[in-house]
Amino acid sequence: MEKLNSASRQMSNYIIMLNPQSRALTDDDKIEGSNMISVVLLTQNALTPAYQPPQQVMDSIPKEISREIIVVHYKFPDGTGVMDNESESTSYTNERITHVRVEGEFASAVRQGIELSKGKFILVMDADQPYSKEIVPDLIGELVRNPNSIIVVSRFIEGAHRQRMSFVQTAMRKGARFIAKYGLKVKNVEDPMSSCFAFSRHVVKDISFEGKGKEALLELLVKVNNKNSNVTVKEIPIKQQETAITKKVNFNRVLNYSRAVWDLYRYGKTSKHLNDRDIAEQKKHRSILFLSKAGRFFTVGASGLIVNYTASFLLSTIIPNIWYLYATLFGILISITSNFLLNKIWTFEDRDFSPRHFVKQYSLFMALCTLGAVIQLSLVYIFVEYYHIQYAVSLIVAVTIASLSNFLLNKKITFGEKIWE
After folding, report:
1. Alpha carbon distance, N-terminus to C-terminus of the chain
2. Is 51 left (phi over 0), alpha (psi -120 to 50) or beta?
3. Cβ-proximal residues to 414 (8 Å cutoff; 6+ apart), any chain
4. How many other β-carbons are positioned within 10 Å of the β-carbon of residue 240?
5. Which of 41, 200, 219 is nearest to 120 (CA)?
6. Bridge-partner residues for 43, per DSSP?
7. Is 168:176 a contact under the CB 8 Å cutoff?
8. What is the mean pLDDT of the chain?
9. Most confident of 78-87, 139-148, 252-261
10. pLDDT digits (tens, 9 = 90+) for 332-342
């Protein structure tokens, strides 16, 4: 309970950080109440889920966050519709629980839940699975911190606690993961068949989600990957309670998975047939983005020279007896710091200022700047001493190579971006 309360307090801090003036956040579609958390609960039970009652899920979300619960009862033969029973559709102040019934499998229910949802953040959960109470605040916390990500509750990463499975079930699940990884190129997630995941609405904005069979997450991952987007996948370990009842893998499940894999394989092949104009536009966009960031980086470097000189001069003026090398060293440190901050905020548009992340980036930036200085000195020495090139020319060439290396290394290592984007 204490862990759940701690997660709730932490969640409140994230929301305050994102929305300090308590105004509604809006996404590209300008959806009303877009700062809302929409939880889509999937169940095969007619009245209430086996393990995740909607009110319990509602109570696990911090009170400061606007939320809605959409309980989707799937495999109903009489079609799709909202249940009329008042006991099954409950309204609250700024909160809502809605029950709907859907004809079809799990993925169809997920699609229906997403279509009915209004929130900026969407959580999908198989409510007939015995997840722990902490799983909802954990998912929300990761999603708020990583809004451009798909957060997956995984059974196959370190720290996961899942129900025991038979040898046959284990072998079949490993085979399914192998097919997803090497057949569908879903290599960025260990549990692509998870039935508990979360994402921001903009992640699926341009995705044609068909919702066939059981593999909702697998379809989402494949189609997001094929969009060449910058969406990342982050997994958190499952916390599943032991129960006597487990969902078994039967022949129909295997058949549905095989069909889903085949459809997604064909989709991947079709989506890669971009015309020449699309390819040219992509290359042009990447070139412009790369040159724009390079220009900003070198502009910041030029400003660092001014900061270096100004800081060194002012310190030597304020403290007349200070050794000039100390003043110069002070100027260098100030200029490196200003360069780092400007590059972080302006060049690479990185807004993560958490202490651990900030210190790590600053240390890497400092180390790479030192490496750049070593490269420059080494090249000047080699050009002058071994190739007898004039010092002025050697200096220009060395500064150019060192600066370009500094930009590329910081882009890749310090700020974690691809080189050509």
Report:
1. 45
2. alpha
3. 361, 364, 365, 368
4. 19
5. 200
6. 73
7. no
8. 78
9. 139-148
10. 899 999 999 99
d(CA 315, CA 327): 6
CB atoms within 10 A of CB 128: 17
Burial of 94 (C-beta count, 10 Å sphere; 0-12/13-18/19+): exposed
Instruction: Domain ranges for the chain, please list them.
Output: 2-273, 277-414
Q: Give the dihedral of Cα atoms 367, 374, 402, 341; nearest 10 deg.
A: 30
Look at residues 396, 399, 417 and name the one whose alpha carbon lies nearest to residue 408. Answer: 417
pTM over 0.70: no
pLDDT tens-digit readout, 206-258: 777 777 777 888 888 888 877 756 788 999 988 665 544 445 555 566 666 67
- CATH fold of 2-273 reads Spore Coat Polysaccharide Biosynthesis Protein SpsA; Chain A (3.90.550)
Q: How far apart, in whole angstroms, are the C-alpha atoms of residue 190 and residue 58?
A: 28
Q: Distance between CA atoms of 298 and 287, rounded to whole angstroms?
A: 16
DSSP classification of residue 387: S
Tokens in use for 336? 């490196």
Distance CA 209, CA 216 (A): 9
8 Å CB contact between 68 and 119: yes
Instruction: Name the nearest CA neighbour of 51 among 40, 43, 59.
Output: 43
